[in-house]
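hey
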């Protein structure tokens, strides 16, 4: 696997792939790779020559957030990527963000759900993703559905700027107990991680109530909030919207999505579930 840290060298590597008519699949990450990333990479490999980036992006962390503590394990990440036979890892230095004067925002989507709790987060995400797209010029880029709002925002950005990249969503990978894989899960000790499993269990129970005929968002969200609090979670939000995240729902319909964010033992977790009639 080739490891590239220099922006111009990465651009040239991509240009050469394109010259030989290869499609480029891209998986942006912040490292500390887990099975969720591996699924993104395996999906990407089906579409083209796969480039993975590792960069803990300071622009997407707010004041008082965990930028300094964010788990980093380059050695192990490198091993995982080599074992997966990824052709190129882009591991930029901080010069990819220093001196940035132009930022991307989507005011409508950035001011709801995660945006309300992390006001500058999506500005940082969209800006870094656009930078990475500018360097790598991928044909396909892969985003996990755990960060559903991020996926919707990146997709909208690619459409709004007529980018030649197709944004591909990839299913959330879960622990056996249902907990969504996340680099931040490493903050938990074993007991904490076990207890955190209740998060997805509560969301699944709400989806079960929907399937059984309950469609009042107030009742479904109320159930989620009450059950999460009972299990020791602090709830930032639990909301039902349409799949485009355009409209908050009062009456849930088939295909809507229930999204939630909680804090548990000092760790912030996100998850979501589609409401589907089975
Ligand atoms: O989802 C992530 O890991 C990050 O938000 C991303 C897309 C790599 C941008 O820094």
């Amino acid at each position: 696997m080739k490891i590239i840290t220099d922006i111009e060298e990465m651009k040239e590597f991509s240009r050469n792939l394109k010259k030989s008519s290869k499609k480029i699949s891209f998986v942006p990450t912040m490292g500390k790779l887990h099975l969720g990333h591996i699924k993104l990479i395996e999906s990407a490999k089906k579409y083209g020559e796969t480039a993975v980036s590792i960069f803990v992006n300071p622009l997407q962390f707010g004041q008082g957030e965990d930028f300094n503590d964010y788990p980093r394990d380059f050695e192990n990440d490198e091993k995982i990527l080599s074992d997966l036979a990824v052709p190129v890892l882009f591991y930029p230095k901080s010069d990819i963000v220093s001196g940035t004067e132009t930022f991307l925002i989507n005011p409508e989507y950035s001011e709801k759900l995660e945006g309300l709790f992390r006001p500058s987060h999506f500005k940082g995400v969209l800006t870094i993703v656009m930078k990475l797209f500018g360097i790598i010029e991928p044909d396909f880029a892969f985003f996990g559905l755990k960060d559903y709002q991020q996926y919707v925002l990146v997709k909208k950005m690619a459409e709004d700027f007529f980018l030649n990249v197709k944004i591909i969503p990839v299913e959330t990978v879960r622990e056996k107990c249902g907990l969504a894989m996340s680099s931040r899960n490493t903050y938990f000790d074993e007991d904490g991680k076990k207890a955190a499993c209740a998060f997805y269990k509560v969301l699944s129970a709400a989806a079960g109530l929907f399937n059984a005929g309950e469609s009042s968002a107030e009742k479904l969200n109320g159930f989620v909030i009450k059950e999460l609090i009972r299990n020791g979670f602090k709830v930032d939000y639990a909301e039902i919207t349409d799949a485009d995240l355009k409209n908050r729902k009062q009456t849930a319909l088939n295909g809507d999505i229930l999204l939630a964010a909680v804090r548990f033992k000092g760790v912030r977790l996100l998850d979501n579930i589609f409401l589907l009639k089975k």
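The chain has two domains: 2-170, 183-273. The first strand starts at residue 2 and ends at 4.
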